[in-house]
């Protein structure tokens, strides 16, 4: 199924795609949905390439798999589960059936309970033992942290609730730093863990319990839990009225839309949270109904497949020119790499093409002064994904936002155009002659022909953020289906967890390093002799 695309790439690989770009291409190689414009004009994908990529979607059966996902089929085959995070934002869709039962009544009931609790916290009807809640501390890791942490930051202009903090790392420096800034008598601790067994989260939760217990008589009263494991949240001492459950068909990295989003809901209020859900729901409807060549998730996936599996570019830079999205790259690292970083296809056979790419990035313009050097002149090609708001939220600083926009557009233009040796010579303006001119000019050449896409939107509202996150979720889904992998399990995180559990007594000195490899044993020796 890959051969026609490989053959096509062989024909066009050396072409300078800037030569393709005109007004007609600008219209043809971009698509709009809702508030967004997705531009993939500055890539080497042409009409033939695009139609071969769309053939790939057809051959992989993306439409049937998509419909199976939305219909609640157990497409997470290695865990025997449905994949239905979309049900959490199905605000005015119809029933969603899992094993013959409509899950929507329970989803909407939990949403209503979250809303009532969030309003109680925000209004002061729910208090700590020292009065109105001033601080919320979300303790969770991975999908139980990155989603709400990213979204709370992204929607800071809409934040009118108590301060929100996030603790994820088992490194005591993380929780100590957060708790230092909070008053136990007016803090709500939310323990966010789908399984309620994750060692980092449970260790931090017990640390928070002890911190609160030193000041407050009834610590359990200021704890809430977000989990699928009601028995474990009860055993931890959290009253069921403050436990918000969800089903196992919500994957951790897809869980922001339900109870795991409680801290976001408390920060921005239930109304704005609903707008966030509505944005995502609109993207779901678009993904289900738009033709592939107008379907934003499918197009984003096609660009990803073209660059990674066909062109062989192994990384993908996510570059938001929107400081509110500063945690988006970290969020997408889990969403994309935990989903599509797999070496075998659904049937257990080795993949014959590379798995998902390495995802990384930083907000512009910070990245420009850090790693863009490599993106422009390094020997590796790094496809870039720019995100850009037409307007910020700081009306009095609009001129500064315009400078940000100019920088973003300048980068994608520079990546495409580059600078020739002749142009570089011209820039030196008679400063050097002869061999020295050649030498100096060569350092100032930009190869160009480096691809990028741009996702532009009017302003980062709750609704637009919902659209963006759902767009990336479905992109990951499409790429996973084309690769033939299971995007919804994460067995690759297990081995490290098992070995850490086995190493803990060794680190504590209760067991020896016997049987450990020489490197690990030597590191343990060094750390123990230095006070670990
Ligand atoms: O890193 C593995 C993982 O299972 C993620 O998929 C998940 O988001 C994270 O751990 C946290 O899991 P939990 O919500 O169960 O604590």
Automatic annotation (TrEMBL):
It comes from the Bacteria. GO terms for molecular function: carbohydrate derivative binding; glucose-6-phosphate isomerase activity; monosaccharide binding. Pathway: Carbohydrate biosynthesis; gluconeogenesis; Carbohydrate degradation; glycolysis; D-glyceraldehyde 3-phosphate and glycerone phosphate from D-glucose: step 2/4. Keywords: Cytoplasm, Gluconeogenesis, Glycolysis, Isomerase. The keyword Isomerase applies. Its EC number is 5.3.1.9. SUPFAM superfamilies: SIS domain (SSF53697). GO terms for biological process: gluconeogenesis; glucose 6-phosphate metabolic process; glycolytic process. Its main location: cytoplasm. It is found in: Cytoplasm. Pfam families: PGI. GO terms for cellular component: cytosol. The active site is at 338 (proton donor), 369, 497. It catalyses: alpha-D-glucose 6-phosphate = beta-D-fructose 6-phosphate. It is an enzyme of class 5 (isomerase). Coiled coil: none annotated. The keyword Membrane does not apply. Catalyzes the reversible isomerization of glucose-6-phosphate to fructose-6-phosphate. Belongs to the GPI family. HAMAP family: G6P_isomerase (MF_00473). This is Glucose-6-phosphate isomerase. It comes from Yoonia sediminilitoris. The lineage of its organism: Bacteria, Pseudomonadati, Pseudomonadota, Alphaproteobacteria, Rhodobacterales.
